Amino acid sequence: MIGTTRTFNTALSTVDFTRLSSNGSHGPRKDQKESVIFRLHPAREGKKLIFQMGTSDPERAVEAAKLIAGDVAGIDVNAGCPKPFSTSGGMGAALLRTPDKLVAILEALVANVGSEFEIGISVKIRLLETPEETEALVRRLCATGITGLTIHCRTTPMRPREKAIREQLKMIADICREMGVACLANGDVTCPEDAQELVNTFGVEGAMIATAAETNPSCFRRKEDGGLAPWREVVELYLKTSMEVENRWGNTKYLLGHLVPGKDPLYRGVTASKCYVGICELLGFPELVERAKELDHTLGLDVAPVKQGKKKQNSTADAASGQSGNTKKDKRKPLSTRGVENSKPAAETPKPTVQSPTEPMEIPQPAMESAVAA
Prior knowledge:
The chain is α/β, with parallel strands linked by helices. It has 16 helices and 9 strands. 39% of the residues lie in helices and 13% in strands.
């Protein structure tokens, strides 16, 4: 977020945060357009959106948070992500190993962002190795002035396929309630009914759904309101929304890879799709095709890629290697065969022979055998 410019997109009624891409070490081109780093829709999301950030520095956390604070309902610090792209920079679950830094980040956000913008500051963590370590950390974090704490009921090394650990949840919920902090549970929560069970059993204020929402975001709908919607219904609504806000195709395609079941015959086509028109035709949404054509043109997805011609022979390199003028592929026999043939003595003019005891002829090993072995 740092380095972005906030603008209101009148065409889409969205708030965009944009900046020029660095393009690695080359820097931005002169004709390069700014990239959208983050986009939100005030009419759709309003003050319901919690912005989660990855950070490992109090000052930079405040700088980034101030850019977005006026448009969201709260700022959440991710101290639970175990992925290397996060932990390698000291962010995510790496902050659990540096509690002093995590506390400093939360205190800075509470003092400089939460109070000024009148929004909540929260944090998401994981369980530590022992209940005693978890309790000590939770008490320290709640003392920073945060309004919410989400506990992912797994340790950092645990993977999603491993069952969530609930034994420490009541203890954590009790500490949060004692210190005036809302406690949310995460891990193996797939629907509102799961969340309600955690509220009733462990005394938490609510729950966070993550993995299940990637597969089907209608998982938030209660059973009495219809429950889980069919994937095609979800995908159609998702595509409509994505096109309304001109979502980047790469991001849309990535999420479609989660929404379309992997065992469905259409799945492979989804992963191979290259534009909005293609995906709408593949999935059978003809009413979306016209809008898809417009968006593909806007995003430059309707431009046919330039085909690379056959690579030309480098005559300079050929000359340097002593192959000048020989452009045909050298169809030589296998090395082993060549080695044996090359080792045969050259034909000589017959000479008078002298009778002598017959001895076996020793054929030298091909020189290339050692090279192949190496």
